[in-house]
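Allow me, if you will, to draw on your knowledge of protein folds for a short while. Thank you for your consideration; the sequence and its tokens are set out here:
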Amino acid sequence: MEGSARVSDNAYARMAPTSVLLVEDDPIIAADMRATLERHGYRVQVAEDAAGALEAIAARPPDVALLDVGLARGSGIEVGRALAARDTPFVYVTGQTDPATLSILGATSPAGYVSKPFDDNQLVGALRVALGGRTARDRHRVAVDRITATLLELGLARAPSTVAAGPTEAECASLSPREWEVLRGLLSHKRVPTIAAQLHISQSTVRNHLKSIYQKLDVHSQQELLERFVGDR
């Protein structure tokens, strides 16, 4: 696909997942999260503990999952391992973002994190970036479209009045898998220390990846990078 990185509402809907497994033992929080996700068109299944989540995964694997780390019964990490074994993207929801905790969580290869307290935009944004990351491993162009649609829908960027020239297929294909992971973090407005902790690499390595990304996409700043995807803000 050439030219604009934007996608129509119908095209994005076709790419959106049909099912989300929400693992949360607080009924009030679970109800709020479920309502948010359903407003965005997702089909949500709720599990209150690790055992229930594992049963749900075995019976009907979800397209993506949101896992509360601090469950009263069982562990969200246990569920994360099961999802990782199935190559199903998942996002941890946690109130602890210290390096030690992130290191433990990162060992299960999550697609992202949502730090408590969070708002609806952060929740949906993390979910969609996780899904974009899964597709990026196979089809870079579709991942670009998903990230673009997310940024536009969440108000993190304004659609330009004219069609913007997004990164070409060749430019996207030139990025290494690790560079693509760093790029997703950058477009999610994560800082270098957070990206480094989540990917289990040093901050200097993240900066080296960013330098390479800027060179390959012919940009000189995060603002220019964003404009390559969605045009002038």
In short: The first strand starts at residue 19 and ends at 23. The beta strands are 19-23, 43-47, 64-68, 90-94, 112-115. Residues 1-17, 135-142, 157-164 have pLDDT under 50 and may be disordered.
